[in-house]
Specification:
Helices cover 46% and strands 11% of the residues. By secondary structure, it is of the alpha/beta class.
Length: 497
């Protein structure tokens, strides 16, 4: 299968599984811990760790290298050549996989994860791979499912505070930053944050409704360092999208925005929040996204009844409907177009379809790649990635600085302006519970795929007020779905009476 974004892979998947098993044997080694501490030393000005410098130097990139990096570079290269050959990969192949600054930050975060947390199942990096920053509550649309309930004015950070937040995230080693909202372009300081984040070597992305992306804006975004745009489009039919988004003419402007982004070389993912209103339109939507818009990928957003979405909870898919959609998307994936989903169940659905077809593809938000791993080796890789990443691979920041495990889980665990972000990531009780699959309850606790999927913790929280509860809507959680239906409609009946 063609990679959706070649720069998004820092390791070949066959290497990761073998490296993981090997690292389990060496995690507690005193020598390894000392080496990791050295490699993770950071330049406070550039926000780069020594391992990032060493990898850049090995690639022959020109920059001002610290003295210790220059002195240790030959030893580092000799060791890495030996290590990569052990796993059947040439050092040149490895260096090609980490050719971008943000990919090297991912490597540093993985190493820091081994140092701080050990080798876990599923894996926890030393800093979030991704932070989704709801940059502003301001928005020019009125979407029915908006998790942020965006639009009405509420207190937000100043531009100066936003830049301080960016510096904190860079200091912590965050590799990817997605600016969301609301409509992020409307947030004060958007352009300053975008440009500085790109200068720090972070992978800069944004989630947008696309309606404000004129040709001029798209060109400016590309020049400022935007690499990836997730654009919301809920139907191939204008009237359906506009009704859902609350503004007539939104569909036309969004489609124009997608084309403008593509014109300037920005990777575009078209995201569709799927409900009973539009799930039957997905085949037509995939065709439209792939063949007419020429977008790089299609993303099915798992509906989570939070924010204004709580008001349309009765439009949520049943377990059977969700499985139908995921099965279809997995077959699209194996046909050669990157179709993905935020539903963690997609990991095992794609695995089962792959076994049926005699091919296996690992898919994520930023990549889709076929692998030659099979059997337990492939399952070990999926367990390493671990499905739901809330509070484990990523977290979210609100416009006022509040920190959530996920944008769809309105559970405040701290505030980035007041708390030590790194310490919070390492020690937060809520995060630690979300990372521990042994704490899951109900059907998720006994599921054979709990390390591969883990269920959507935000949906569990939205329905049951407990982020460790089962994920209603999964095909393996029908009993919990029936309970959720009784709770939701029982609550609505009481309110109406």
């Amino acid at each position: 299968m063609k990679r959706a974004h070649t720069e998004s892979l820092s390791f070949q998947t066959r290497v990761i599984a073998e490296v993981t098993n090997t690292l389990k044997r060496y995690t507690e080694s005193r020598k390894v811990k000392l080496a990791l501490k050295f490699l993770l030393r950071k330049n406070p000005k550039t926000k780069m760790t020594y391992v990032e410098y060493l990898l850049a130097k090995a690639r022959g990139e020109k920059m001002d290298y610290p003295l210790l990096v220059r002195l240790t570079s030959p030893l580092f290269n000799r060791y890495m050549k030996k290590l990569t050959s052990t796993f059947g990969v040439s050092y040149d192949e490895f260096l090609d996989a980490v050719k971008t600054p943000w990919a090297r930050k991912v490597v540093a975060s993985i190493l820091k994860g081994f140092l701080v947390f050990g080798v876990r199942r599923p894996f926890t990096p030393g800093a979030p791979f991704l932070v989704v920053w709801d940059f502003t509550y301001r928005c020019n649309l009125r979407c029915k499912h908006c998790y942020a309930a965006a639009g009405p004015p509420r207190p937000e950070m100043s531009v100066e505070e936003r830049l301080k937040v960016l510096d904190k995230l860079a200091d912590a080693g965050v590799a990817m930053l997605a600016l969301s909202g609301g409509e992020p372009i409307l947030g004060p300081g958007f352009w300053e944050v975008l440009e500085r984040g790109a200068d720090y070597g972070m992978y800069m992305a944004m989630a947008t409704n696309g309606t404000l992306i004129t040709d001029e804006v798209a060109q400016r975004l590309a020049k400022a360092g935007l690499r990836y745009a997730q654009v919301s489009l809920d139907s191939p039919y204008p009237e359906v999208h506009d009704e859902f988004r609350g503004v007539k003419g939104a569909w036309e402007r969004t489609v124009r925005g997608i084309k403008n982004l593509k014109k300037y070389g920005i990777t575009v993912e078209v995201a569709m929040t799927v409900t009973k209103l539009n799930y039957k339109q997905i085949p037509k939507m995939v065709e439209f996204v792939r063949d007419e818009l020429k977008a790089d990928m299609f993303m099915m957003f798992n509906f989570v009844p939070t924010g204004r979405g709580r008001e349309i909870i009765d439009l949520d898919l049943t377990p059977e409907e969700r499985k139908e959609v995921l099965d279809y998307l997995a077959r699209v994936l194996y046909s050669g177009f990157h179709a993905a989903s935020t539903a963690p169940q997609y990991a095992f659905v794609a695995y089962e379809i792959g076994c049926e077809m005699g091919r296996l593809i690992i898919t994520g938000h930023f990549y889709g790649i076929e692998t030659q791993m099979y059997g337990q080796q492939f399952l070990s890789m999926l367990e390493f990635l671990g499905g739901c990443g809330a509070g484990r691979l990523y977290c979210a920041i609100e416009p006022n600085g509040d920190i959530y495990p996920c944008v769809f889980m309105p559970l405040k665990v701290g505030n980035i302006l007041k708390d030590d972000f790194e310490e919070l990531w390492h020690k937060c009780r809520v995060f630690e519970e979300l990372r521990n699959r042994e704490l899951l309850k109900g059907e998720c606790a006994t599921c054979q795929y709990k390390y591969i999927c883990g269920g959507c913790r935000a949906r569990a929280y939205a329905y049951f007020g407990d982020y460790l509860a089962p994920d209603p809507g999964c095909i393996f959680c029908k009993e919990s779905w029936n309970l959720a239906v009784r709770l939701v409609f029982g609550e609505r009946s009481e309110q109406s009476s």
